[in-house]
């Protein structure tokens, strides 16, 4: 019997060594039942920090919060709960850019990994009349992907279009329990992206400017509670009256501040450099002058952040 067992072990070792497919299969099992999980997970924290500080403009709160929370989370071999971040701010301020950075520096690809899962409400949850169906489907999707890899990343975009009630099905996955429905889930990362709360963020940025202070003086603590109340009380929010908010299951709210002209021009310069046209300062200035700014009195902030920059560069190049 012992000889037979040793022979089986030898065969398995050979298969694992010579067959990537078999190796992947056993890695997936390991991801589910043990604390050792690879699943192509190749975190590069220094690379993430460098990317955030080099390519994300005007967002000191997002830079500091994301880099610190991700680093702290990954330092724990067995975290007591998943990492849950909620990005808030106006269009074109960098929310989607940061989610792509996370994918690139945790899995080596922006969104191409089979372990990064993106949900868009208008595509996946379009009808407010089918909330119960969506809840069941979402639970199955998340549970199935966590079974395949405990290091899965789930990105929920456009939370302002998510039918209220759907996202609460994730509540058991976001707390401190060891397993949910038989699946170890505490190594997962959840990212929620929304424009809800941008009014609160814009007001703080404007008041700070009018007081003669630098935007970098705005602290996370100045905005977290106000954003939480905004997403909880807004009937357009996917977190409207959500128990996830009530029970404080989000690791952190991450504010994205409105961008000024200097930030827009930096976006334009980056876009030009990607096209091999770094020297075109005339285009940079033209793009900065062509963007619509708000409020009407003062015109301090771009109404669409850097979202229209590629189109403006095409226009002036």
Explain this structure to me?
This protein is an alpha/beta fold. It folds into two domains: 45-256, P-loop containing nucleotide triphosphate hydrolases (Rossmann fold), CATH 3.40.50; 259-316. The protein contains 14 helices and nine strands. The longest helix is centred in the middle third of the chain and has 18 residues, at 131-148. The termini are far apart. Mean pLDDT is 88; it is low at 1-24 and 26-36.
Please summarize what this structure is.
A hairpin with a 2-residue loop joins strand 4 (179-180) and strand 5.
Give unreliable regions as ranges: 1-24, 26-36
H/I helix tally: 14
Percent in helix: 40-55%
Strand % is: 5-15%
| Most strands sheet | 5 strands, parallel
CATH 2nd-level architecture of the largest domain: 3-Layer(aba) Sandwich
State the distance separating the first and last CA atoms.
76 Å
GO molecular function: ATP binding; ATP hydrolysis activity
Binding site for ATP: 89-96
Domain Torsin-1A C-terminal: 262-314
Family: Belongs to the ClpA/ClpB family. Torsin subfamily.
């Amino acid at each position: 019997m012992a000889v037979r067992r040793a022979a089986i072990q030898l065969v398995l070792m050979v298969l694992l060594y010579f067959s990537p497919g078999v190796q992947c299969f056993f890695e997936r099992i390991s991801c589910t039942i043990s604390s050792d999980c690879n699943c192509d997970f190749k975190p590069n924290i220094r690379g993430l920090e460098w990317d955030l500080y080099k390519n994300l403009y005007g967002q000191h709160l997002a830079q500091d919060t994301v880099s610190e929370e991700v680093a702290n989370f990954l330092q724990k071999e067995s975290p007591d709960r998943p990492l849950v971040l909620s990005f808030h701010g106006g269009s074109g301020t960098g929310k989607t850019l940061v989610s792509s950075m996370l994918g690139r520096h945790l899995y080596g690809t922006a969104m191409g990994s089979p372990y990064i899962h993106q949900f868009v409400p208008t595509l996946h949850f379009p009808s407010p009349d089918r909330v119960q169906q969506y809840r069941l489907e979402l639970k199955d999707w998340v549970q199935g992907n966590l079974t395949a890899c405990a290091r899965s990343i789930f990105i929920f975009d456009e939370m302002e279009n998510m039918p209220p009630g759907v996202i609460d099905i994730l509540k058991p996955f976001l707390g401190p329990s060891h397993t949910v429905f038989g699946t170890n889930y505490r190594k997962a990362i959840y990212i929620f992206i929304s424009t809800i709360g941008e009014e609160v963020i814009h007001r703080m940025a404007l008041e700070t400017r009018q007081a003669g202070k630098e935007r970098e003086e705005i602290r996370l603590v100045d905005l977290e509670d106000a954003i939480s109340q905004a997403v909880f009380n807004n009937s357009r929010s996917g977190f409207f009256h959500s128990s996830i908010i009530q029970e404080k299951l989000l690791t952190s709210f991450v504010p994205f501040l409105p961008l000024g002209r200097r930030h827009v021009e930096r976006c334009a310069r980056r876009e030009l450099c990607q096209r091999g046209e770094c020297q075109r300062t005339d285009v940079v200035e033209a793009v900065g002058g062509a963007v619509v700014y708000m409020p009407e009195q003062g015109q301090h902030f771009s109404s669409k952040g850097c979202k229209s920059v590629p189109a403006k560069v095409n226009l002036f190049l």
